[in-house]
């Protein structure tokens, strides 16, 4: 499946199209993070996301123009069966929790597992995840997840990059997404060099190349 | 039934009496009797079958109150489940609708056979035309009830006295154009209609409260006068149907398909959904009972405070309520939020197979807005319900709860685990678009846009994220007129008509552009005419393709693996 996306994601305007998935419990601020990053706006009144929303942003990563295709998913568990339709071909997965909500931190692990099952990346161990603890603007007394604990978790999962952000006050959002873009790009390139010889993917590549009129 | 005074009940099965014109609260015994007898036919009554935590006890007193003839297997009255109505599903019941000119050449769009309609109507009425409690042949139905169409019906209110002891029509004065003004005096709450107490008891009272501005040839242009007259005659057509002692639901459906006047919508929706009994004599007691049941359920659910509640469900509801229609002031008010979260929570715990699923919060809002509008003057979307008397809020909440329940009962499998209903609808939409616009289907396939990526939300939220609430309300007039399949099947054709509307634009777009476009479609300026056209187009596609393919036939809840591979 990943090879299929690769042909699709390369196009004439930018060097690369990178597919990023944002996951996490309902209400942790996924939509707000995405809109702060893409539109530089914050609104206190987004409707709950149903299925998944889609946004794009073009960025320069080391002089290469890449287009981030960001899928902002719904947090309610009932929608998890949809995952396969949205996760396939992802280059990076962002796990978001609310630092003021213990439970949203505890579910990160299952979000990660669920993603790996449904997206089935070629190499689960090296697939890039980035963890974001959001809503640090809320006053300190309400914080439930200490930074140390979050960092220990990231360490235990293979040194995942970790950011603490405020989508509301635009703290650390840009920095987090820059790292996300780099990791996604690295993943995309790694896939390109390592994966094209899998017998099962050859047919896919041929078919997609025909459709897109884009030689790979 | 207006001013009819109390009706002497017949002996035998007619023990449940309805005392019209007196305060029904004075008859607690009557209500109890009614509740008991009602439970006899509860086998497929969705209230009960879907309500394991219902606090209504259901002793089975066989034979105590059976309707005659074939009622052993049939469910009488509004307690029908949607499956009971399947026979009715293919009955054309909506008016011929104008189809878009570009589709004029298409055969058979919108034509119906009146014969089958009549035949199925009888079959349908025999099953559904009553309330939960009584059979159709009940001899206590008042025969003298007059069916008065038109605005002259003020006369029929002469004997109706408001709680204050003032005849409701007393201050009415005939307007120049045949309209009359209803009393505005003695408002208790800003924006609350003076006659709210009569409305609380029986939504049928709304029929006598329609305000028509007097037509003045000096002030109004001829076009305006024409529009006003058209409105009056449309309202009168509805009134003729709604005032009947037993509302002819087939007629109501056929009228309502093309849109319901705002003033009559609350009552019409409740009838179309089978919440309000078609038989006017049953309304007061039925509403009382259902409202009490809801309020008792709510009380019980919240009795132990948050600690005693299902934390997962409650957490989800309480974070979604502030995110429900945040752009409309009505939903920013605390009173609205408290009422809606209560409705959603009670529904969720009574339906454990699905529980609360995001999107259901959207679906309750048209009911909230429509039912609230019955009691207030002015624009409901900017109204603060905080000043309303608790009894009005209770009644509106209860009506919302039951009507939401009715609606969701028809699309249960949209919200259970893995959402098979939605998966199936998305797959059907894809198949349908392949047939009606193969070029578009091919293009979407070429740019690798999957239907589930954009239409999941269309199904999960009934297009409520694509249209204003006002437009959705208009759409629901038609959906409800489509009978049990409106929200499950007709909706599919609406989605198809909606998608192919943008065919030309979409075919020029790549993956990214398609996704961005479909996610914020340019429908902000859409009004009633656009919605009417969309519904007509949907109707045409349904006429052409319904039952024409095994793909599009509802095959129950089974979802095949290949269908899931969207």
UniProtKB/TrEMBL annotation, chain A:
GO biological process: regulation of vacuole fusion, non-autophagic
Key words of the record: GTP-binding, Lipoprotein, Methylation, Nucleotide-binding, Prenylation
Database matches in InterPro entries: P-loop_NTPase, Small_GTP-bd, Small_GTPase
UniProt xrefs under Pfam families: Ras (PF00071)
Molecular function GO terms recorded: GTP binding; GTPase activity
GO cellular component terms, semicolon-separated: fungal-type vacuole membrane; late endosome
Family designation: Belongs to the small GTPase superfamily. Rab family.
Descriptive protein name: Ras-related protein Rab7
TrEMBL record, chain B:
Leader peptide range in chain numbering: none
Gene3D superfamilies on file: putative rabgap domain of human tbc1 domain family member 14 like domains, Ypt/Rab-GAP domain of gyp1p, domain 1, Ypt/Rab-GAP domain of gyp1p, domain 3
InterPro entries named in the record: Rab-GAP-TBC_dom, Rab-GAP_TBC_sf
Molecular functions per Gene Ontology: GTPase activator activity
Biased composition (Basic and acidic residues): 32-43
Biased segments, Polar residues type: 44-58, 70-96
CC per GO annotation: Golgi apparatus
Domain Rab-GAP TBC per the UniProt entry, residue ranges: 259-483
Region (Disordered): 1-117
Pfam families, alphabetized: RabGAP-TBC
PROSITE patterns (alphabetical): TBC_RABGAP
Listed Low complexity bias regions: 106-116
PANTHER family listed in its UniProt record: LD44506P (PTHR22957:SF26), TBC1 DOMAIN FAMILY MEMBER GTPASE-ACTIVATING PROTEIN (PTHR22957)
Protein name: Rab-GAP TBC domain-containing protein
Gene source species: Arthrobotrys flagrans
Record lineage: Eukaryota, Fungi, Dikarya, Ascomycota, Pezizomycotina
